[in-house]
Amino acid sequence: MERPTTTAPTTDVDTWLSEYRERVERIRVRAEEAGTRVAAVAATAATRDGAVSVTVGSSGALAALTLGARAEDMPRARLAETVLRLSREAAADAAEQVEAIMAPLMSEPGW
To answer: Does residue 60 have a pLDDT over 90?
Structure first.
């Protein structure tokens, strides 16, 4: 009785593995670049009169809050609502920026 051979054609496997490694490396580089760009994302929303300005980072977390002189004239409830509204606006802008950065990476075949 003859034993079946268990070795695959080496060139096909080596070629496939080499191409796979190259693809993984390209994806890794693109992901690293995207991560760097995402980390730099910031978005700011402000009132027209400069009373309140809010800046958030890529996650939407508050990074800066500036209250101008006109903020002193605002009732506290209105000031609080304005800060929250501007925070939501800035967070939405930051999310759009992150999505735009990640979209090409996520469209990579095999994800």
So the answer is: yes
pLDDT digits (tens, 9 = 90+) for 68-109: 999 999 999 999 999 999 999 999 999 999 999 999 888 866
CATH class of the region 12-106: alpha beta
Q: Which of 31, 26, 83, 87 has its CA nearest to residue 56?
A: 87
| pTM higher than the cut 0.85 | no
How many C-beta neighbours within 10 Å does residue 54 have?
Answer: 24
DSSP 110: T
In angstroms, rounded to a whole number, what is the distance separating the alpha carbons of residues 102 and 51? Answer: 34
Query: Residue 63 class from Cβ within 10 Å (0-12 exposed, 13-18 middle, 19+ buried)?
Result: middle
